[in-house]
Every structure is written in structure tokens, then in C-alpha cells.
Amino acid sequence: RKGWLDKLKAGLRKTGSSIATVFTGTQIDDALYEELEAALLMADTGVKATEHLLADLKKRVKESKTTDPAAVKGLLADAIADLLAPLQKPLVIGEHKPTVIMVAGVNGAGKTTSIGKLTRHLANEGASVLLAAADTFRAAAREQLAVWADRNTVEIVTQEGGDPAAVSFDAVSAGKARGRDVVLVDTAGRLPTQLHLMEELRKIKRVVQKADGTAPHEVLLVIDGNTGQNALTQVKAFDEALQLTGLVITKLDGTAKGGVVCAIARERPVPIYFIGVGEKLEDLETFNAREFAQALLN
Ligand code: GDP
């Protein structure tokens, strides 16, 4: 646990240091709040979450009657933790067999890597996993997923040049027939033709539901935490198209834009199941609101 926190803190330090330096002065005055506003915006917290946090913080400062800027930092950590608390939710499997998890995300977000890490996480919990390579357009995507399947020694359902929805249907059927606990469906992050990506993903969702009436049980979006406000735009677009149940936020081990997590909480509060803190199999952690708030301000 501690190793992970250190990694996250190191990653967020670029964000954190600029926020933390706001509290090194001797007075709590308008200048402090103005500096804090700028620092939060710089960290990609967004206007709405920044306004909310400042108003909440001023209330807390007033109630506490403190005159010490250092104490204000602690109060800000409380405000951020409270804002993020609704996003802290575990991914639950076992209610359905298989639990079908559809995974979306634009190319480069870290989707394939996250699926590999998630497979390891689920296997560690004793779940049997089957992977579906529904990004049939890119040979490289299939091959990359096959590498992660190998690393985890799990089965993969794929079909060269096949129809993404058909591959997903086959994978869910195979998962049911073989009694697997989880089917993870990797989808395309970009299409080579003019075909609309969201339309393609909606079709996969519909067809998966045909294979198993209650599926998909989870629709996850993988976003790159390093893209700041852009990540929030993606959450909104994919949520509108697919009704997301959860997020995986990657690359939080090296970003100055960690504040975007606050923006998500304020503007599109989809639960954060996991955060990515590195490129290795074990670099996936469950999201903890208080720890994250503290890392942001460290
Ligand atoms: P995809 O196109 O969305 O499937 O993205 P990939 O899974 O191929 O990842 C794109 C790049 O981001 C690769 O170089 C990964 O190693 C890297 N990556 C993915 N997740 C993380 C993370 O949490 N931290 C860091 N530092 N790199 C990551």
C-alpha cells in the first residue's frame, strides 16, 4: 500500500507542489484564495469544481476560526476528500456468472494495459477471466491484447477482421458455456473508416445483451489522467452514448493534471474503480478519496 501512495504522490507532486505552496505564507487573506484558485485551475480542476472547493473551504475556515494558513491546507484536503467520496466505489463481481465488463477508451488512453492489469487483479481475487478482442480493426490491438492474455495465462476470443459485435457475442457465449467468472471485452478506440465509434460501441453493447440478458454488467471507460480537461470531455461523451458504470484513470504516476478527478466528481460523477500508477501488471490500485486528496496536496 505504502509503495503505491509514494508513487501517486510523486506523480501528483507537480500538481501538489503548486497547490501546497499556496499555504506557506503567514496570512489567510484574499491573496491566498486567489493564488489557490489559480493553482487549482492549473491542475485542471476546472472552473466548477474550483468554485465549489473555494466556497466550501471558506466555510470550513470560518467555522474552524483558524488564522494559520497551514491549517487551511488540511481543511482543503477535507473538502477535496468529501467531494471525491461519492466516486469511491468497488468493482463488484460474482453477482452474475460471467460478469461481463465492456471496456472503452480512445487509443492511447491505456485501455489495453489496464485490461491486462485488471485481469491480474481479478485473477488475484480468484476469478477466472476470458478476454474478448473486439477491436477487430487493428491487428496490433489484437496482438497486444494477446500478449496480456499470455502474461496472465487466460483465454482470448478473437477473430481476424471479424465483426466486433460478433466477436463480443461469441466471447460472452463462450464465457457462459465454460463457466468463467468474468468476460472482459476490449473495444476499439478509433475506427479506420468513417464509421461512428459510438455507434459501433452501442452495437457491441446491444449484441452482448442478446448473448446474456443482463449483460453488460459493467461499462468501463479508461481515460488518461494526463490529458486533464480532455479526459472530462471523454467521460461526458462516452457516458451519454453508453451509460458508463465506472472509470479507470491511468497515468496518475506522472501528471500535473490530477485535479481533473475533482472536475469529474463535480460535473460527471462516474465511480472510479481503479487508477493506473505505472506500466507494469501490478500498477493498478483501487481509488481512495482521502488518500487521493492527501496525495494531491502533498
Ligand atoms: P490503448 O491504446 O488505450 O490500448 O493504450 P495502451 O494500453 O497501449 O497504453 C498506451 C501507453 O500508455 C503505453 O505505453 C502504456 O505502457 C502506457 N500506460 C498505460 N497505463 C499507464 C499508467 O498507468 N502509467 C504509465 N506511466 N503509463 C501507462
Explain what this protein looks like in three dimensions.
Pfam families: SRP54, SRP54_N. It comes from Hydrogenophaga pseudoflava (Pseudomonas carboxydoflava). Its main location: membrane. This is Signal recognition particle receptor FtsY. InterPro entries: AAA+_ATPase, P-loop_NTPase, Signal_recog_particl_SRP54_hlx, SR_rcpt_FtsY, SRP/SRP_N, SRP54_GTPase_dom, SRP54_N_sf. This protein has 298 residues and is α/β, with parallel strands linked by helices. The protein is built from eleven helices and eight strands. Strands 3-2-4-1-5-6-7-8 form an eight-stranded mixed β-sheet, with helices on both faces. β2, α6 and β3 form a beta-alpha-beta unit. α3 packs across α10. The longest helix is centred in the N-terminal third of the chain and has 19 residues. Bound molecules: guanosine-5'-diphosphate (GDP). The site of guanosine-5'-diphosphate (GDP) has 18 residues, from α5. Guanosine-5'-diphosphate binds next to α5.
Helix-strand blueprint:
Blueprint: H1 2-20, H2 30-42, H3 47-64, H4 69-84, E1 99-104, H5 111-124, E2 129-133, H6 139-151, E3 155-157, H7 164-177, E4 182-186, H8 197-211, E5 218-224, H9 229-242, E6 246-250, H10 260-267, E7 272-276, E8 284-286, H11 289-296
Parallel strand pairs: 1-4, 1-5, 2-3, 2-4, 5-6, 6-7
Antiparallel strand pairs: 7-8
Helix pairs in contact: 1-11, 2-3, 3-4, 3-10, 4-11, 5-6, 7-8, 9-10
The structure holds guanosine-5'-diphosphate.
Family: Belongs to the GTP-binding SRP family. FtsY subfamily.
Keywords: Cell membrane, Cytoplasm, GTP-binding, Hydrolase, Membrane, Nucleotide-binding, Receptor
Organism: Hydrogenophaga pseudoflava
